[in-house]
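Next comes this protein:
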Amino acid sequence: MAEAGRPARPDGRRAEPPRPVALPSLRVTRDGLSVGECGAPTAAEVDHVLAETVRATGAHIGAVYLLVPEDEVLRMIAVTGVSRNVAMPWSRVALAAPVPVAEAARERRPVWVATHTELAHRFPRTALALPYNVAMSVVPLMSGSTCWGAVLQLWPGTHAPELSPGEARAIEECRRRISRLLRLAADAGRPVVPGELRTVSPPPTRHEQPGAELTERFPEGVCALDLDGRITFLNAKAADMLGAGHQCLLGARLWEALPWLSDPIYENSYLAALFSRLPTSFIALRPADYWMVFTLYPDATGISVRITPTGAPSEDHEPFLTPPAAAQARPGALFHLLHLSSALTEAVGVKDVAEAVTNQIMPVINVQGLAVITADEGRLQVIGARGFPEGVPEHFDGQPLTAEGASLRAIRTGVPGFYANTDELRRTYPRIDLYTKMAAFAYLPLFASGRTFGCCVLGYDQPHPFSPDERAGLTSLAGVIAQALERARLYDTENQIARGLQAALLPHNLPRIPGLEVAARYLPATRGMDIGGDFYDLIRLDDTSAAAVIGDVQGHNVNAAALMGQVRTAVHTHASAGAPPGEVLARTNRLLIDLSSNLFTSCLYAHLDLRSHRVCLASAGHPPPVLCHPDGRTEILDVPAGLLLGIEPESEYRTADVPLPPGAALALYTDGLVEVPGTDLDVAIDELAAQLAEADPQPLDALARTLVRRAGQARQSARGSDDIALLLMRLAKHDA
């Protein structure tokens, strides 16, 4: 959860510690909920409930996440027990991420993890990023079927294997109260929305400690750190042992103020104490040959540190023996980069990669502007940008590769460019106004498969000297981004080809048939070249009759799509030749047998007699059609179910003849429209029939859109993966 330590301000002053959020005056309603003066709950009420809950459960860290459905992300809006700096790397969690907070919101159930061993087993990514001995509870914030977000709490890893009844009651009460506050705020037209991360009631920073004079009598060094790792007190012995004065150390972090403590392992010991609330210790060498033991004692207000001299450590302490020659990446940056690498691994398209880079990398490297640029067809294209002044992304977008500029030079040469200030850039490119809008820049070429195809541009609002290690780290990071971007570009290309093939295999337009209203929808569910085999068609036979067909070829690949095209063509041919419904399926079945395909196909064929108002149906193992009568009553039609196409050469397909009165609507669909994991198929079909009864008699096009949207939402929440095809037909009440 940590991020890299905040660098000193350019003006040399100490950065101010996080300030507590001031709670407004509250009044209590009859149900125990507090609301603001205006009557609508606010974010401060959420903070108030979080603080009460942490006190009631004894947790030492708590956080509230808010779900942003349109971005499919959970945003941390409030945290207590750690500083904003420490919490920032966890402030955005993708809803699809395999981490406890996302799982609780996605699955809409509580998550309890008692030990770090269990965390590593169930959530390995989180265990890597949070390698501390903690117990964790996450509960979703629910109001009916609406998920608002989640509440996270952490305890020391010495917690009992299960929550106590009192803890469980307090957590449930917190879930209920915050969910209700969020719902009431939304109902009042003042929804709580993610903004700047708030720290809830952090303890005050103290530079003068009660009883400080007592510590001067100790023969050892004593200092205190706040929740952000800054020194709030140290006695004279500690200053002497650390080899620095009070003024240099107060308000600073040990690992930033003292070069010999710059190894990230020392900061990590502080974070281990902060997150686990258990004592930790480490041994460090102050040049020259002065060894010390640092023992850290945490509580809710910060960490007390005891510093004692010691002899040279044994081989058991090998990781602490030799301080590095130069500062390495801070633990927060390392852990955050693990999340970035995972996000880039999971990113599918170019847009996904751009969002992962712009949303997750900026907190790690303390950069104020970031743009990812690619070179396509002789011009630059900005695929993602954030933080630059207005007009800067437009400056890059569309530039020819022959133009001047540091980004173009990086793409042409493949050599990174680091500019601690903009003096050189303004001298070299005096006509480019961009270089007056930021104080420092880095241009990182994106290189993969033997060529440079883009550039990652970093902008800083203050002069920024780039150390050799930072330059190497940024260059390596650009390589990771380039590889992810190349995979994403390949996916986007394949996806475009796949969607084009699917579109070619499905009918572009359905024929207009007098007296028959028709609407169709197809929703693919797979990615890349995994193409679905769902299909539908409407065939005009003569002036008073038509045929409709819907089917689903087994599998999700190019072979399934190719077979789908053959089946659709065969059905169309036999229907146009005048074959009755059962014979159409029997002939198509023999074709599949002759093709020796190992894929099976379900199919439903309907012959519509528009003059006599009847429909004759034949099925090859396909879900039954639903008939919605003119009075709104729905009926799931009982059609004899024959074998799937492609199994048995001599299969016969019996038919069912059903009245189709004027104003009645007939729904043909594939199983993707109704199937939800864990739900019985018959129950799901009954639900579809109920939806048709409620929605009729709206226009079929609007009805089809509604049904597919609902199915898509249900499939997403249940992580289903099947295609959806839907064909709706309604006989006009008065013949044209």
Q: What stands out?
A: The radius of gyration is 33 Å. Residues 1-38, 202-208, 316-329 have pLDDT under 50 and may be disordered. Residues 497 and 529 are 8 Å apart (CA to CA). The longest strand covers residues 545-556.
